Amino acid sequence: MTLGKKISLWVVAVILIILVAMIVVILTFDWNRLKPTINQRVSEAIHRPFAIEGDLSLDWQRPKGESGWHSWVPWPHLRAEDIHLGSPDAVTDADLASLSALDIVLSPLPLLHKTLSIPHIELTGGEATLIRLQDGSNNWTFDLGTGDDASQPDDSDQQGGWTVDVREIAFDPIDVHYQDATLAANVDATVELLGKPIAFDALTDGESAAGQAVADQQVADYRFGWRAQGSYRNQAFEGSGRLGDLAALRQRGAAYPLQADLHAGATRVSVNGTLTDPLAPKRIDMDLSFSGQNLGDLYNVIGVTLPDTPPYSTRGHLTANLDGQEALSFHYQGFDGQIGESDIHGDLTYLLGEPRPSLTGEVVSRQLRFADLAPLIGADAGSEDQSKGNQGGERQQPPDKVLPVSEFQTAQWRTMDADVKFTAQHIEHGDSLPLDNLYTHVTLKDGEILLDPLRFGVAGGNLNTTLRLDGSQEPMQSRVDMHIRRLLLSEMFPDVDLMQNSRGELNGDATLSGTGNSVAAILGSSNGNLQMLISDGVISQNLMELAGLNVGNYLVGQLFGDEQVNINCAATNLEVDDGLATTRFFVIDTENALIRVDGTVNFKTEGLDLNIEPESKGARVFTLRSPLYVHGTMKNPSPGVDAGSLLARGAVGAFLGTVATPAAALLALVSPSADETTPCNDFLSQIQTDSP
H/E element holding 264? Predict the structure, then answer.
């Protein structure tokens, strides 16, 4: 044998001996000796405690699913027991995560291509505790340095960095405890593997305008399930849902499927869709449904200020681009739903910006039930809302009061801005409230709500209002300017046959300002003026019964018996001072008498103190010889005859001479068609002419 061959044989022998020795060492080495070094190095790298307190072992297994010579390269199987990952001391002394055991199988050949390939990873006895303090610090954010590689992880492939490939994961149900002082959240959750992957039903163009973005992407199956219960924003809740497989987490730009169903009291929130790049979210694209007893309760769930309503449900599509440089915005598109017995449709956008988030959009109701608007002013506070007690500052309606005492939640108004248009194409109503349609433009800025216009179509005419509620002040300041034009009496009282031939109209103006956080408080402190004019109508006991006015029914019966009497003109001018409405001018001109009303209506106490004095025309003689009165309260009025005071009769001119000045102001409300006069023209003009 030549010298060269001998050297080659010795080299091969030495290599084999070294390999055998390495294998023997690896197979017999006590890996627990490395635990102190591993614990120290990992703790230093992540700047928090890390410890493997149980056994650390390594064995080998034959590759699964490999062929050729790859099948002869064994895979190392690392097992570590009793693992603890700590939290920053400034946040909590509880572990961020702990495991009873961790099993990792590694494929060594991909290491040659800078890929850490893990065919199988299994977690046993997992538990995690996530905590965030009021100042925003938390225990799940790691300080791993600020180098270029750390700041741009998505470009690691192009920069020659390492990648991690996890093929299969298995674990027992993992308990997760979440405490967040900023959200007032305390949640206990369990995450578990689903028995069999469930296919995710991707959206399509037919279901949503945004569906193509999802349908064009590869979507993984549902692989994980979760359950949770606890409190969020001080509201108890419970929920469950599903998450996608790990395959979608590894694909940049992939749509990761998720589904959740949450219950917070009577409120239910459901989502079903995708989150692009969930580890660094880029886009939200999902169906979103809400339902509950009161739309205003959503403030406690999602932090968006919405009005109080009857029971509701709505379903639409939510999209958001989370990867832009501009302020984050969420679009709730093409939603359909119900509020009470009314339908709603529209598009809304919620923008997270400074100094406050804002809500913009447009909502349409094709068929609005007017009773469903009642909670907006607290009008149902004495019935259905009684079950709420005094939560959120609400007050139960006293049984002896008519004006709503339920308080507006002005503190919520200051948490966001809004610019929303609302249209009701048709309004369902009772016979006594002939509303046709509604349109309003609502703006909310820095706690001040402005409805301009708030416009109703009523009885062939319209009611235009500008309403301002300044919730930035305490107590709230408010102002309303109302203009009633050309309400047709024939449409206001469709069941009165004689009224159908009437060309009569109702016109009016009102300006009121007040202070307080409820309708009752605002009117009880209000100042302003109210004018109203009715021309060419009729009045009778039957009409009062149709309108549900028991007091009016009594008064008409006392004045006219059972007759139906034509009204030439009815005009009123009320001055309101600190909640006390005083009649400056209140006269009803009928075919056979003039009726004058004097007195006050106290909105603060809801007290009534009105006197009704009739004056006959010509030779017609009244059966009544004494004035009438209405005392009591709005809830319990008390009409009667002032038997102790005889009616002082005199000329009609003298009867009206003292009211010429306030009557003149009412001429502006007379709105006849071109070249046409109404009885109110002649009546008011006569008062001015006859006045001394």
Answer: strand 255-264
